[in-house]
Amino acid sequence: MSTKTKKTILSVGEQRVYDFMLEHKGITTFQANHELGETRLSARIFEIKAAGVKIEDEWLTVKNRYKEHRRVKKYYVAGGAR
After folding, report:
1. pLDDT (tens digit, 9 = 90+) per residue, 38-55?
2. Is the per-residue pLDDT at 24 higher than 60?
């Protein structure tokens, strides 16, 4: 069964994160905080997974405001475009 057609009940915060991942092909902690006001992305991801949605992740290397390299995790709905 596809995660897009699966009937899953999510809280408002979980649904916002899920919808953002689908629309933007993933989400990082910075995006969750900046775009959604969500400060506990890993908790929302845990809850979304517990609701039966398959979430995958990958590590990305980005530069911070001081031009230093940092690793961040990007989460996305499995089977969705990256």
Report:
1. 999 999 999 999 999 999
2. yes
Query: pTM value?
Result: 0.81
Distance, in Å, from the CA atom of 42 to the CA atom of 35, rounded to the nearest integer, reads 16
Q: Which two tokens stand for residue 23?
A: 């629309």
H or E segment and range at residue 19 = helix 12-24
What residues does 56 pair with on adjacent strands?
A: 76
Instruction: Report residue 28 as tokens.
Output: 């990082």
Determine how many CB atoms are found less than 10 A away from the CB of residue 4: 10
44/62 Cα distance (integer angstroms): 23
